[in-house]
Write a structure and sequence with these properties.
This protein is α+β, with helices and mostly antiparallel strands. It is built from 14 helices and 14 strands. The strands form two sheets. Strands 1, 2, 3, 4, 5, 8 and 14 form a seven-stranded mixed beta sheet that branches. The protein has a seven-stranded mixed beta sheet with strand order 7-9-10-11-12-6-13, sandwiched between helices.
Length: 383
């Protein structure tokens, strides 16, 4: 982390010292500077329309405007933004009680001002009335700042890895060889892809859709409200992020508009029995990747997951996507992912998902791993 030495501060004129970095609330007029700062450090940037939607169309935020911060920024002495974090409100349920939670979006600070990162996180994590902080996109560069707030690891999943299936062997091997600077990447990818495909066919257990019909939803409808009520009722001892129709529509609006989000469902008559949400998040070197963002089933089991995954694998192959991934390996029930996703890769972080409960009773409750059912729907990982 960059910081100013005591000597340099002491020898500067007092007037200049008084004009040091300043913390203030984010305004909509800050978008351009924040987007430039994010892009300098390879963070994903949103269009102005998407950025405003994220902050002002959140169903939880709407009732609190004006006055509820959309985030905070650090300004240098020239009023240039050198640090930023967005303020994303979330709603959780546990044991019949609603819990107001928060996650940061786009946390970034210039190296010379890293000492101010604690000011941003303090404002974010210690907001009045907020009981829970969750963050599932923590990078190695920001981990030290979060450790200062004694944020425990989420106890379910493996949040420094992702497991994946290869769904387009030739394309995947070509990108992999190119990443290794192989000059004959394209030529060698064909025989190698055949060999890897054969190995997978002989060694891994295949997913079967069976006689379960998977239906694709182009959007979220009223059935998702009914599903959410049933999910809460059937899992009172589990911490669950709110999945009402309006929250889902806000969360995935632009992903659906860009055809980067898939909603696959299994129905029982007129009601939903289970659903899975997938989103497109590509990697460096041209790897095309879909991620399993969320899976929910009213019966609490995983019997309906294989048909949904089988459908997604087939769709990835049809669209030339290289892999389908389970980031964080959060589906541990029955160890299903362990059995069928044959490949692993480390995430560029020591651990991506941390939390902090400001309520002592909630903090004690969340020490029990049985209270957790995490996914990429939590926090900001799929926003």
């Amino acid at each position: 982390m960059g910081n100013m030495s005591r000597t340099s501060v002491a020898t500067e004129p007092k007037e200049k010292a008084r004009r040091g970095p300043k913390l203030r609330e984010t305004s909509l007029e800050d978008y351009q500077q924040i987007a430039l700062l994010e892009s300098r450090y390879d963070l994903p940037t949103k269009s102005y329309e998407e950025w405003v939607h994220l902050h002002l169309s959140n169903p939880l935020q709407v009732g609190r405007q004006p006055g509820w911060p959309i985030g905070w920024v650090i300004e240098d002495e020239n009023k240039q933004i050198v640090g930023s974090v967005g303020n994303t409100l979330l709603s959780y349920e546990l044991e019949g009680r609603r819990i107001l939670a928060v996650s940061g979006y786009g946390f970034v600070v210039e190296p010379a001002y890293r000492s101010t990162s604690l000011l941003l996180l303090d404002r974010l994590i210690n907001q009045p009335g907020v009981e829970l902080f969750v963050a599932n996109t923590i990078t190695r560069a920001s981990a030290a700042a979060f450790s200062a707030f004694e944020c425990p690891r989420v106890p379910v999943g493996v949040w420094d890895e992702f497991a994946f299936w290869i769904t387009h062997y030739q394309g995947f091997l070509e990108k992999f060889l190119a990443m290794k600077h192989c000059p004959l990447a394209r030529l060698l990818s064909y025989p190698l892809s055949s060999a890897v495909f054969l190995k997978d066919a002989l060694t891994k257990k295949g997913l079967r859709q069976g006689d379960v019909e998977v239906q694709v939803c182009p959007s979220f409808d009223d059935r998702f409200d009914g599903f959410w009520e049933g999910l809460k009722r059937n899992n009172p001892q589990v911490l669950l992020a709110a999945r009402t129709r309006d929250v889902l529509e806000w969360h995935f609006k632009y992903g659906l508009l860009k055809n980067q989000v898939w909603i696959a469902t299994v129905v029982d008559g007129s009601r939903l029995a289970a659903y899975a949400i997938f989103d497109r998040r590509d990697l460096k070197y041209g790897f095309k990747r879909m991620r399993l963002v969320d899976f929910q089933s009213l019966d609490g089991g995983i019997a309906l997951l294989p048909p949904l995954l089988s459908w997604a694998l087939r769709k990835c192959r049809e669209e030339g996507i290289h892999m389908l991934a389970n980031v964080g390996r959060w589906l541990e029930k029955g160890e299903l992912i362990e059995m069928v996703a044959p490949y692993r890769r480390n995430l560029p972080t020591s651990w991506a998902y941390f939390y902090r409960a400001n309520n002592p009773g909630l903090a004690e409750r969340l020490k029990d791993r049985r209270a957790w059912a995490p996914s990429l729907f939590d926090g900001n990982a799929s926003l």
